[in-house]
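Recap from last week: sequence in, structure out.
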Amino acid sequence: MFRFGSSSGELRARAQKTVLACLSSSLAHLRSLHSPSFATVAVEDISSSQPAEVLNLVQGKWKDSSSWNWIVDPLNGEPFIKVADVQEAGLKPFVESLSKCPKYGLHNPFRAQERYILFGDISAKAAHLLAQPEVSNFFTRLIQRVSPKSYDQALAEVYVSQKFLENFSGDQVRFLAKSFAIPGNHLGQQSHGFRWPYGPVALVTPFNFPLEIPLLQLMGALYMGNKPILKVDSKVSIVMEQMLRLLHECGLRVEDVDFINSDGIAMNKFLLEAKPRMTLFTGSSRIAEKLAFDLKGRIKLEDAGFDWKILGPDVQEVEYVAWVCDQDAYACSGQKCSAQSILFMHENWAASELISKMQSLAERRKLADLTIGPVLTVTTKKMLEHVNKLLEIPGSKLLFGGQPLENHTIPNIYGAMQPTAVFIPLDEILKDTNFELATREIFGPFQVVTHYKHDELQKVLDACEKMHAQLTAAVVSNDPIFLQDVLGRSVNGTTYAGIRARTTGAPQNHWFGPAGDPRGAGIGTPEAIKLVWSCHREIIYDLGPLPPNWEIPSST
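Predicted structure tokens:
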């Protein structure tokens, strides 16, 4: 009986293993059936036991590297993506590839005009693919895996990218190169203004929007006739690697874009050696200023933003305004260059239930649905140190948050912080000894809150004037005189005005970018694309004929 029971158990165990193997095989088959045709990864399978690989693209070929950079899962710290890391010694093929592109670009209004039509077709096909639920979900989940944010926030990034591609389908690409003509001084003379490509260009983009920022800027560069090399933060570059494969499936020539993964030192060396005619950098102000110096000004920047919101005297729709404040400050765990960094409340708002409603909304955010999550560039320790320094300012107080997240496996190299707000008196913020600290951008779920009296608007505007970053802003009021006053004495490049005003939001239907800096870059619109990715060229036709009986005039 004992031997029989043992034999039966072994048979049962074997049978269970066989069934599980069959189920696993079936599930893998089902996943492959539902995976996009271009994809080289299965999003849900990426793990330390099944790591994904990210390759480089140069001279039309996908290539690995002798060195691999392991990326850890931001939610559990396990290595789950290996990136082919280009070292300084391996830059030569990328330099050679970019140098093959002439200054006049791959197409321009006088050459290879069919490529304008080609990119309209590519955009149409890519927009159609990205609108498919299976493809949309693929990119949404891939974004979540590497830059954890709520599903809706990640999906919004995919949606904006898809609508952008729709916007530049058909003839819209060639419309970007629309020229103009002005009559000359005599018969046969006419001047024409053209939008001209730079030729070899570079893009360096950050982690927080792994698809939207690099895709929109990359396509803008291509539309105008440039040959770009794309460098995305390696923590999230898998997203654009997969997007490039989608674009290839839609007709993009594999030689038209190079894709490089490297550290900052290697990329800086590449830029100095390859000498791109223009570089687009989106990221921190410190690196932006270094690149502007190294590249001798041949750069466009969309750098840091310590973004302000001013609440005017007319208190209304308190619950809605509180919700927008919560979204602006804490969606994506505050990791948006447009995130609400400081809130100036009119005394009427200070007397309302606004702060208590903001607190309630902040406290419902949870790691389980990624409405709060890992902070990828600031550790918990640094965020707590910053909060404590602010609380040393006279009159300051913690409004809510201020504690690390609990019960998580987020690695220590990242931050894990509750949504936090610190109140600081306006007069204290304006002091020279406090201003730099109070207006220091913390790229995480953190904001400063203050209030002002009815006759203290000038102090608020003085504070805004002293800030060095002018990316986004919001003036929350329906009072036309108040709006006119604040808008007329501020400069932020993307400013929302009205009771529904927000600081965040970079959709495809309006300009998004800083103002007040000649190096400022925009994104998403025809104006942004033309500004960033083309320059003006004037061609003056002077065909004659000469006037009858023309003679050489006297010297002048």
